[in-house]
Amino acid sequence: MKPLTETEGMTTTADETAANPVVGIDQTKGDFQYKVDYAFDAGTGLTEDTVRYISSVKKEEPWLLDFRLKALKTFREKPMPTHWATKDLENIDFDKIRYYLSQGQKPKRTWDEVPDDIKKTFERLGIPEQERKFLAGVEAQFDSEAAYSNIKDIVAKQGVIFVNSTEGLREHPEIFRKFFSKVIPTGDNKFSALNSAVFSGGSFIYVPKGVKVAQPLQAYFRINAENFGQFERTLIIADEGAEIVYMEGCTAPKFSTSTLHSAVVELVALKGAKIQYITVQNWANNVFNLVTKRGVAHEDAEIKWIDCNIGSRLTMKYPGVVLKGERARGEVLSIALANDGQHQDTGAKMVHAANNTTSNIIAKSISVGQGRSTYRGVVHIPKHLKGCKNNTECDALLINTNSRTDTYPAISVKGDKNATQHEASVSKVSADMIFYMQSRGLTEAQAMSLAVNGFINDLARQFPMEYSVELKRLIDLEMEGSVG
Amino acid sequence: MSQLVIHDLHISIGDKTIVKGFTLTIKQGEVHAIMGPNGTGKSTLAKAIAGHPDYTITSGEVLLDGGSVLAMEPDERARAGLFLAFQYPSEIPGVSIANFLRAAVQARMTEGEELDATGYYKRLYAKMDMLKIDRKFTSRSVNEGFSGGEKKRCEILQMAMLEPKIALMDETDSGLDIDALRIVADGVNAQRKSAAAPGIMLITHYQRLLDYIVPDFVHVMHDGRIVKSGDKSLALELEAKGYDWVKQEFAAANA
I need a surface site. Which of A446, B106, B108, B240 has the fewest CB within 10 A? Predict the structure, then answer.
């Protein structure tokens, strides 16, 4: 496997895309692709050579190659979790996936250094220029390497490390190796093992003791090659009393064959630290999005996941918090929208492991047309603990009669010194409600979009401004596409 | 001057014909009261003209300023200048009145036109004051948890903001106590006096509303069509004699 310098027919033709229409879904969003010359390419399929190749391109230390090879073995040994998850997982053809692609570039520091083609892609994604200036640090991931990263002086001056995973492990092993793969061990599940074998890209962030990062750190990423799986790995460590907000946004162009996204995100909030991790994702509707996200909250620490899932063929994602220290707090706010042909299998995991820990889960799902939403939650409070509290709310909104929603809450609270409450509701956007709004001059799509935005409004209000605006725009696009 | 021409309209729900040859012309600035007992097709008429998908117009015509609205979607009819004040307005959880109306106002603007937010709120507050709606309502979800009177005032507020050419008011008086009725009537009367006074089809069971919103014409509906028309004295006559009087007269005329 030699580094390639030529483009390998990566652009999707109009015929190919037309061969995979999903009825009623707007496929135009994110539907564009620019020719990119991939300097490094691991080819398709997954073997030990693929893993060795990735590791050598990244000039990794032997321990990391070892780690990857062991993970590959674990991945092969683990069965697909189809005894509880959807059979659709069996349709992933691991031999047809491209596990590594790189621009062969060093991550960029300034916008001027970013190649024009990539800039064009970002422009199409609508990342406004003033937003770049506004944000303290932007790390945009283009394919498997960060093509562009920019940390504002003020963040660096505070001692905050904000790099990609390759650079993090190479330049700061003393910090990252200690926590890497500790929150989510390789063998946690089949896809965390896969990620551990072939991971590339993703952010590594360390916030020193007592440092409160004033601006959210933001990363945009995007897949831009057919048959290409993206396996980013993110690790965020907030040292004692530190605070950080991290935002991740994804849009992807559509492809004519299925594509796989399988990330691992680990968060560590040490004593009294706060981490907020925000995701608004909008995958193309042929993407399998199988992500493992978990954080460990130490004494008096707080971890909050805000997770919005729009698009993809199948999303399986259950952000979790292990409440390891006393008075630790964990929260998951999740919104999932399943349009025709999509399955959003999302939820949350809260593992209480110390006294007086609290967790809060609010999950809202919207199912449109043939779309399917599943809530899966785990709350675990063992018997020997006291003063633990959990609140779980799941609300589902159905738009038209064919859509389906399921709720599987597994709440195990033992002992009599702990409290939990669980509420669930299912509501429908009725024809009368749509007619009422139409009679005021709103189109059917605008009416549905307004109904959906109303349903998630109390959650969306907790998001940073630009994310709630983006979310609203994505919902508008989805609703436009779902009206015949 | 806009006008709505309804000509020989037949409307059915499923196999059942409800409206059987309704004819009426409403000019801007006029108030036509449509009265009649339950089940004569008054509400069906209003909803069908607004484009409710459950109702089929089997024959006849509805022309707004000379153009047929029958092939138009409900939202196109609304943007063309029709407004339906609902008997039972829907609740829209999570959507504030301010945002809802703003979206409706924006839907009427041409592409590229920007809504003047300051001007919009100024206008909204003025209309709310007129209808004695507390400012707090702007951030409340549309109709959610509203009393009957609040819902109806919210309908009139929307009508005042959207300035339709023709308003179809479906039993706006139902469920209102006398104070609420007066406020709603004041709101409608204020619009009648404005330069952009709409033509109004006022559907009601009771003469009571007509004491406050004095109609230019009164029409009595029976069995899906107008059987008697007159001025506001007809409403008083109905009040005194009851609907049976009209039914008998109609039966005699058709005997």
Answer: B240
Instruction: Tell me if B36 is assigned to some domain.
Output: yes
Phi, psi for residue A183 in degrees, rounded to 5:
-80, -45
Q: pTM value?
A: 0.79
How far apart are the CA of A435 and the nearest CA of chain B, in angstroms? 7
pLDDT interval class at B56 (50, 70, 90): very high
Encoded amino acid at A172, one letter? H
Which tokens hold the place of A162?
Answer: 């904000």
- Domain span holding position B189: 3-93+165-253
ipTM greater than cut 0.90: yes
The answer to the question of residue B22 being in a domain is yes
Nearest CA in chain B to A455: B94
Chain A / chain B CB contacts < 8 angstroms: 82
From B78, B86, B93, residue closest to A438, measured CB to CB:
B78
Query: Hey, of A397, A440, A442, A443, which one would you mutate to test binding to chain B, going by the most B CBs within 10 A of its CB?
Result: A440
Nearest alpha-carbon partner for B35 in B191, B177, B242: B242
CATH of the domain at B171: 3.40.50.300
Q: Is residue B160 part of a domain?
A: no
> Given this model, what pLDDT does residue A41 score?
67
Is any Cβ of chain B less than 8 angstroms from the Cβ of A11?
no
Instruction: Please tell me the total count of domains within chain B.
Output: 1
pLDDT tens-digit map of A457-479 = 888 888 777 677 777 777 877 78
> What is the tens place of the pLDDT at every residue in A92-117?
989 888 787 665 444 444 556 555 65
- Give the chain B residue nearest A454 (alpha carbons): B94
Whether residue B85 lies inside any domain: the answer is yes
Q: What kind and span of H or E run contains B56?
A: strand B56-64
Which phi and psi (to 5°) does residue A179 adopt? -110, -20
